[in-house]
Amino acid sequence: QTAVTQEPSFSVSPGGTVTLTCGLRFGSVSTSYYPSWYQQTPGQAPRTLIYSTNTRSSGVPDRFSGSILGNKAALTITGAQADDESDYYCVLYMGTGIWVFGGGTKLTVL
Amino acid sequence: EVQLVQSGAEVKKPGESLKISCKGSGYSFTSYWIAWVRQMPGKGLEWMGIIYPGDSDTRYSPSFQGQVTISADKSISTAYLQLSSLKASDTAMYYCARRDLGGRYWYFDLWGRGTLVTVSS
Question: Which of A24, A34, A37, B16 has the fewest CB atoms within 10 Å of its CB?
Fold first, then answer.
């Protein structure tokens, strides 16, 4: 099966900026994969952050932004806050009604 | 209120079958695809499959094809995930999620709270 890659873990200092990426083991991510991003804190359901590469979901602070960087989708958090400490998942639309999640990135804010 | 309400936690024995549900409310249930997502303990999210309740068109991840059955009853605005011949490795949280309307953005805009399934002898 197609492998969607994410950094297993990342850390950022409070107030800092961090960019998490979402790639393909074979190939490049483009807007045609409609990358979306989800935040999940322990014991909670995922929360939609970004869709269609760079559109913030309703209520999502503007410190979260999405883009394509090189051959990957990217989620950038600017001015990280303590409650941004979560797991972050990207998902790519592969076509024909199939989606694939990345393995997730555990973000630590310290 | 627009929401997806999932059925409660289940404890099953190996070899048993299970059908968990996801009821949509506050919106036109037949107009939106509903996906199922697995999360094994301490692990990431895995996309399992998706159904369009309007006509029961269903797609499966190759990883789950033949292992699970997704169905829907539009008369009661409910989607289902059926797991058969349960194994300990089916122990997981299962989420349902609504796909965006119209297929322009191809993402999941509404999530259920999850159903915890525990398989243990």
Answer: B16
